[in-house]
Design goal:
4 copies of one chain form a homotetramer.
Chain A: E1 3-11, E2 14-21, E3 30-38, H1 41-47, E4 64-70, E5 82-84, H2 95-98, E6 131-134, H3 137-140, E7 142-143, H4 150-153, H5 159-169, E8 177-181, H6 185-196, E9 201-205, H7 209-217, E10 222-224, H8 231-238, E11 243-248, H9 253-261, E12 263-271, E13 279-281, E14 294-297, H10 304-315, E15 325-330, H11 334-342, E16 350-354
Parallel strand pairs in A: 8-9, 8-11, 9-10, 11-12, 12-14, 15-16
Antiparallel strand pairs in A: 1-2, 3-4, 3-6, 3-16, 4-5, 5-7
Helix pairs in contact in A: 5-6
Chain lengths: 355, 355, 355, 355
Amino acid sequence: MATMRANVFHSKGKFGVAETPMPKAGYGQAVIRVTLTTICGTDLHIVRGEYQIKPGLVLGHEPVGVIAELGAGIAGYDIGDRVLVGAITPCGQCRACLSGHQAQCGQSAAGYQAIGGWRFGNTLDGAQAEYLLVPHAQANLAKIPAELTDEQVVLLSDIASTGFSGAESGGVRLGDAVAVFAQGPIGLCATIGARLMGAALIIAVDTDPLRLRMAVRMGADIVLDPKQTDVVADIKQLSGGGVDVAIEALGLQETFENALRCLRPGGTLSSLGVYSGKLHVPYDAFAAGIGDYRIVTTLCPGGKERMTRLMELVRHRRIDLAPLLTHRFSLENIAEAYDLFGRRGEGVLKVAVKP
Amino acid sequence: MATMRANVFHSKGKFGVAETPMPKAGYGQAVIRVTLTTICGTDLHIVRGEYQIKPGLVLGHEPVGVIAELGAGIAGYDIGDRVLVGAITPCGQCRACLSGHQAQCGQSAAGYQAIGGWRFGNTLDGAQAEYLLVPHAQANLAKIPAELTDEQVVLLSDIASTGFSGAESGGVRLGDAVAVFAQGPIGLCATIGARLMGAALIIAVDTDPLRLRMAVRMGADIVLDPKQTDVVADIKQLSGGGVDVAIEALGLQETFENALRCLRPGGTLSSLGVYSGKLHVPYDAFAAGIGDYRIVTTLCPGGKERMTRLMELVRHRRIDLAPLLTHRFSLENIAEAYDLFGRRGEGVLKVAVKP
Amino acid sequence: MATMRANVFHSKGKFGVAETPMPKAGYGQAVIRVTLTTICGTDLHIVRGEYQIKPGLVLGHEPVGVIAELGAGIAGYDIGDRVLVGAITPCGQCRACLSGHQAQCGQSAAGYQAIGGWRFGNTLDGAQAEYLLVPHAQANLAKIPAELTDEQVVLLSDIASTGFSGAESGGVRLGDAVAVFAQGPIGLCATIGARLMGAALIIAVDTDPLRLRMAVRMGADIVLDPKQTDVVADIKQLSGGGVDVAIEALGLQETFENALRCLRPGGTLSSLGVYSGKLHVPYDAFAAGIGDYRIVTTLCPGGKERMTRLMELVRHRRIDLAPLLTHRFSLENIAEAYDLFGRRGEGVLKVAVKP
Amino acid sequence: MATMRANVFHSKGKFGVAETPMPKAGYGQAVIRVTLTTICGTDLHIVRGEYQIKPGLVLGHEPVGVIAELGAGIAGYDIGDRVLVGAITPCGQCRACLSGHQAQCGQSAAGYQAIGGWRFGNTLDGAQAEYLLVPHAQANLAKIPAELTDEQVVLLSDIASTGFSGAESGGVRLGDAVAVFAQGPIGLCATIGARLMGAALIIAVDTDPLRLRMAVRMGADIVLDPKQTDVVADIKQLSGGGVDVAIEALGLQETFENALRCLRPGGTLSSLGVYSGKLHVPYDAFAAGIGDYRIVTTLCPGGKERMTRLMELVRHRRIDLAPLLTHRFSLENIAEAYDLFGRRGEGVLKVAVKP
């Protein structure tokens, strides 16, 4: 049996590169040779035992690669095509997908399960490997234009798609005032997304000076540090009474609550964070339910059309995510990368991992 | 000085019909002789001291009447015209109104205040009176078609406009499954609204058998009593995995949480309730923030165009709210009406009050 | 080789039931034994040579049946399941489908072709046959609830899905005034759709008294005959200045132009007709381009989720299309059915054809 | 009687600066001392007799000024405040305004008239004057931030608001391909608008090399000259099968038809042009009505909130319209400005006119 190298999860705190079986493409599937991937905050949650996956699964969900094998039933692709695959791989044919909720793909015949279309490194072997089996390949292989490098597109798979969706689901309109809470990779992409969609004023909030500097580089007009200032009061003052859209990109009570408090009447809180434990919606922050507020949540949009559209933004120089890719590692040294990324060392934002 | 009879609020528990000054129409205003009004749950909150208004204010915000005086600057109306006025009276000219958030009307030059466009019986004298001063009259006087009686339209001013908006803001689409939590007057109108907009399956939830019977009459397919059954489990089963839209029409933690729990992935919780104290969003009910859920809140839409459109629904026999008007009182006996309405006696839903 | 009976198109004016090869399910496909189908106006265009298809193709695109064979890769279905299949069969995985334009399914790798997702009786063998091969079966087989008969659901496949979409794409809102031009099967379903979505006033236009009577039965408030009256003037008067939404359901210059002329400023013309030749947009009817008008066109929405939602509307007694199914024929006598349907004999609206 | 200098229209070809009565603010009105204005293509249509207005009316509809007089009933403003007023002045209180169609403001009590909210230089005295009476002042006076000059904001009143709305009504989304037909001032602003909203690829079409150069400066990726190339074929090729949104900014059959022909299935034609005579929608260009195309038209959005939002875009350096203001004239020399603007001399785009 052919084997490959891959970063395998064993149990809380235990994972590492090992020899694993090569995948084989079934009908409607493809195998890609991974040429670049990265590590996501979710991967940290997994190796820390904060999110459960099956022992033995390969980690990672952000793949760039080259088609190595095409199963039957796939049209329009050739072996050797360079492709980007989204972190979310919708089938396009289930109830959720046909209802326009592709990220929630995964309905069984018996009814919905809210696991969503996130499969790589969650329910299927992931992208931190030499090879990756792509399910529903017809819907998920996005060809990479020749003029784009792997590094230019790898962050589109998850963080850019998620971050931009914060602005999209929030319904940012021309001339809006927008506040973005937390400027990690997702929050920075939310800042970029708000800028791309025509917000007039973007206020970025974080406690890390490096990240705030990057926020300015990515399009924020004003940055605020909650350790230094009353961010809600400042945002209300700067926006003349409250922002049109507040984007939450961390998943904490504090950022959620602040995002709600800085809205103008009729404003929208667009939430990207993954929350744990109880979330409180204070009576006054919620205008007792009669402020015409909206709270919208979004899971990373996937599928090849999404990836293609995001690559067009890179190709036509609307966005440049290169500054977010701060470090590079080989797959064999991925443990080092997890360590650096996990302790936020050396100003790391995202790491490139090359099999 | 001319006087009139009106139901005046004094302090917690103290209110009553008294002689008060007749209003006078200034520029852009009108005075109507009230021919019918009603009592709202909010009025109960006020007289119980749970919501603060200025002592001396006339109560009530749901007026039907006849134009008695027209201030300068009002065109297209005549003395004697029968009109319906919404509970919310937007000016049409402030930042909130021009942003499409008419219910949030009330921005000062200095910035927004979240008081909204609710003025009658809140910041201005209200409708439980012989005469009522209507601000921003050009935007708020809706002529009543001759073939409609006062009783046919009085409930449109607040509860129907609010209840229907639960379905509208929820984005109910053809074929949706909808659950409506609580079947008081607002909830019953949310049930009607979901039916009007083409929901295929409407599940109404309440603990009062009388209200559940009325829910069926108003268009619910199935009624559930949370005292008798696990409503979340039942709704998930009946809807094949969760409803598209859940409408909350009470303002309690339990109904809010149940509404959230019975959504399908990508579903919308449309909240009409006025909440007090903290509201919890349990981690699991919220799918940790990645279920593509939306939570939308709506304050009663007002303005003459809204009232006119709702009257068209009555005129063309799409809706019949008559069964909700269960009792009739004169203005002089309004204390009795408050008592009955407050203790939910005799199967009361809404009371008609005739000055 | 196994054979079956099917209605085969040969050339202009020539078609008939013949022995043809039985289909065989490949990967991702299914074969259904057709238990009920019907004839569409489009089929008439084909046999009259007004729309070109390949000689030898089986006609028809509105199938109800029982699963006879399941190809590999299909999950959640069993042989013997009763299913409804939409006239449009999206793959769910191409650029158009992933962009939310499932009806326009059919992009080649090289770029879009505007053939849309209409395949049955157009580019693939159709439903007027004993057996039918269903492509992209996972996305297109909608199980029929046991309590619904074939006749109750067969019209959902095309005319109801199309007709309702006229109201949906038009954005009909609670309290709207809507005019529907032409009351053939599609127009009647547009009338039903406008009613379902909460229009307050529905004005149906046609020259056929039988169809106008049916329009009233299906929910129209007022019917107008352009031979008897100036419909544009009447509609403007009845709606107080113009309708919010006008639905065109015929495909002629006259109906298109009248639909445009009866709009209020900011109104929407929702067009369902299939036009031939040039279409004129008169300068004045179009308010010179500055009336904030919208013209939207819609091809029949397909896919199993759409079919399931429409069946829910039947199951919960929101709609009853039975009155539209006026005649019944066996597949062997389908030529008679074409003749009757083609000359609009005996008050025919739609015919049931049973293989 | 006090008088002022103003550019008065007499009859076809006859207009000029003359002494006219000073306006006086009535209730709800304001008078501004105009500090900057400009000439619009519509003004040319008027003086050429192609659009009828009443003789004696002052021309012009794009005012920047200083409040000189405030009528009763206006709150939140002071004499001396610098303000921008939109070309369209909605009342905020009529049926059209309360329906969200503010640009169509102008409903009489008897029903709609499609004149829209365009009043300055059309039904009321206009802005090419020393003083201007502003109707519905509470809804239409937008204070100018101190850091912005008159020249930075004067083009927001009409061309920027109109041009941007081409992208907004077209529903431009992140990653879209957009084509903009004609690069006059409105078309250039449509190009800016598409860029602001996140289009990935913008193709600008015009025959004038100067305007195409300006289009690149304003954000177009590719420019095409229909005299040099088959623009429809080129656009289809460049966009991989058709654009998501095509914006028409001229008002001719050719540009309208080309815009329609270059759409991908499901695409939107956003029309800003003012058409004259018949407009043809060729059968094939329209996909026979079943391409899921949308055609949307938009009249310049007005009102103070719109103006404020657009000024925020200037203030935060999202847009810089200065390059479009190519020439400067005094009010006394406005005839020269009309001449230059009318014959498109010296690369003129827009002229600043200073009373």
